[in-house]
Design goal:
This protein has about 575 residues and is of the alpha+beta class. About 50% of the residues lie in helices and about 20% in strands. The protein contains 16 helices and 17 strands. Strand 9 and strand 10 (about 255-265) form a beta hairpin.
Amino acid sequence: MKKREFISFKEQMKKTLIFYSLIPLLLITFMGYCSVYLTNYLVIKKENQEVSKILSKKIDIMVSEAFEKIDILSKNEKIIEELVNKKITSITYQEIYNIINNIELEGNLIIFDKNKNSCTNIKSKKLTSRNVFNSMIFTRMDNNSNNIVGVTGKFYFLDGEESDYCICKAIKKNGEIIGYVAYYLSDSFLKETIGKYSQNTIILVDKYNNIIMTTNESFRNGINKIGKKLQISENFSKIDENRYFISQRKIYYSNMSIYCISSLDYIIKSFFNTFIYSIFVLFILTFIMAKVVRRVAINKTKAMEEIISGIEKLKKGDLNAKLIINSNDEFQIIADSYNKMLESIKELIEKNKEETEHSIISEIKQLESQFNPHFLFNTLEMLRYTIKTDISKANKIILNISSILRFSIENKSSEVTMARNMFYIKNYLEIQKFRFGEKFQYEINMKEELNDILSPKLIMQPIIENSIKYGFIQEKTFKINIFIKEIRNNLIIIIYNNGKGMTKNELYLVREKLNKEKLETKEHIGLYNVQRRIQLMYGKNYKLIIKSILNKGTFVKIILPISKGENYDKDINS
């Protein structure tokens, strides 16, 4: 069979991408259109903010001029004098006309006497009877008699002229209000003046957000405030959720605010129309492209999916998930390397497992063999004197120690039944009783049903030995109590002695040594060996727990798993 030519996946994809470069071109076109949209938006934003800046400055100048003129009128001595006499002369009319004639902000001036009746209407029309807000003007002037106040409301004149804002002030003489001067701004003049600066919607509001003037009535609600169509906030500028760009500026002289509102509908609609068209073109091109590259895509995707599937199985621990790929490209090389890697991993795991098991067994055997030479020395020394005085007692000691030594060097298993363990522990305790006489007592409490439970060989002997070494006090009887029971599927061995106990610091040091993986000193080596053997054989959940109180004694608890053996009587008799 002729060997197929190796074609790299990289070259195949490169040709495909070059051939179908139309898609990147489409994306570039789309990004270009987005740039145009962004530019238009920035232009609208800049124009909006510039208009709001110009208008706020213009309105501030006009309103401040009107405020100043009204203040001058409220302090005019002739007007004050004639208001006292309840008669405004024609000469005074002319002076009033000269003062207000130069106000750029057009409006209607009315002077009222202290009974709130109109005294003159120079450059004004008469108010109609439906001006419900006029009483508000006098209330505000009475409450702020020393200041010029602005009142927002709807004021109607007989000739059809309307006003939404009134600048007014109380006229006083010797601290007493004798009249009022009110200047009603022309709504039509405000719309004409402000409207020529921008085709955008302009809204002028007072400090309570009441509308003074708007070039678009659709933004005014039933209570003369900006309606829900716009969500106005304290931000300088923002985009409203209804697709408006809004900029806000304060008119500081009069506590007014001006909003300049630009609609983004046109550029947003244009953007979405073009976006939909681009999506349609992209869909057509994708459909054509899918037909052409179908075979390449299927073959390469299949190989990639097989590799990914194999890696996922490996992550879950399946070391038998081999890859079979015959694509004559990089994927086949990856699959072959993956299969070789699996074989190497399996070999290393088996080798490591075997080495770990050997290491654990060796360490356990080494820990079991560490029999305390002091015990042997003391026992043999005691035996030397006992032979001279009591042969029968000496024979018992020899039998007990020989059985313990034979048991300790036995290599059949690291686990024995509790019955067998207790048999040799009793031998050990009897040797200590021969040694210390009546000064040493012990007691063992274990139910018969625990006899066939397996436990590490000689697991209690180092603890008892430590108890005697560190806890024995000559002045009183030393007693060891051993309790063995099953709790929550665990074998619990408790060894308690009434010796001298330990201080808190000594107990802390002992516990710290037990938790180390390697003992640096030879102190408490027996306890460390017990802890190490338990955790090597059963894991970190099983351990040694020590509690002690100075001059009260020491409490040691061993926690082991429940595991049953057979024929414990046979083990003991053998």
